Amino acid sequence: MALDKDKIIADLKDASILELNDLVKAIEDEFGVSAAAPVAAAGAAGGAAEEEKTSFDVELTESGDQKIKAIKAIREITGLGLKDSKALVDNVPSIVKEGVSKDEAEDLKSKLEAVGGVVTLK
C-alpha cells in the first residue's frame, strides 16, 4: 500500500483542532510515543549547559571541630582580619569567596575541608 503524502497533508489541513488532537492521541497510543518528547529533550539539554558553570561561590556550611584552624584558613584565603574571619566562621553558612574559577574553588574547598570545614560550591 503506497501512501499519498499530498492527500494526507490535504486531509490534515481540512481537519479541525479537535480532530487533530484525537489523531495525535491515537498515534501516541498506537505507537507508544509521546508528542511532548522533544520538549523534554530540550529541557535536558538546558540542564547540561547549566552544569558547565564558569564561576562559583565557595560557601562554608559548617566550621567543624577545629575552629581556630578554620579561622586561620579563612584569613589566609580571604585576607580578612582576625575579627572578620572569626565572624565568618562563627556565622555559618557564609560565603567565603564569590565568582571564582572552578580550579580555585576546588582548591579553597580542599583547604577548608583539611581543617574540618564543610564546604559547598554554588
UniProtKB/TrEMBL annotation:
Domain Large ribosomal subunit protein bL12 C-terminal: 56-122
SUPFAM superfamilies membership: ClpS-like, Ribosomal protein L7/12, oligomerisation (N-terminal) domain
Molecular function as annotated in GO: mRNA binding; structural constituent of ribosome
GO biological process terms on file: translation
Record domain Large ribosomal subunit protein bL12 oligomerization: where: 5-49
Repeat recorded as keyword: no
Keyword terms of this UniProt record: Ribonucleoprotein, Ribosomal protein
Matching Pfam families: Ribosomal_L12 (PF00542), Ribosomal_L12_N (PF16320)
Gene Ontology cellular component annotations, sorted alphabetically: cytosolic large ribosomal subunit
Gene3D superfamilies associated with the record: 3.30.1390.10, Single helix bin
Protein family per UniProt: Belongs to the bacterial ribosomal protein bL12 family.
Function: Forms part of the ribosomal stalk which helps the ribosome interact with GTP-bound translation factors. Is thus essential for accurate translation.
Subunit-level organization: Homodimer. Part of the ribosomal stalk of the 50S ribosomal subunit. Forms a multimeric L10(L12)X complex, where L10 forms an elongated spine to which 2 to 4 L12 dimers bind in a sequential fashion. Binds GTP-bound translation factors.
Protein name: Large ribosomal subunit protein bL12
Taxonomy of the source species: Bacteria, Bacillati, Bacillota, Bacilli, Lactobacillales
Gene name for this UniProt entry: rplL
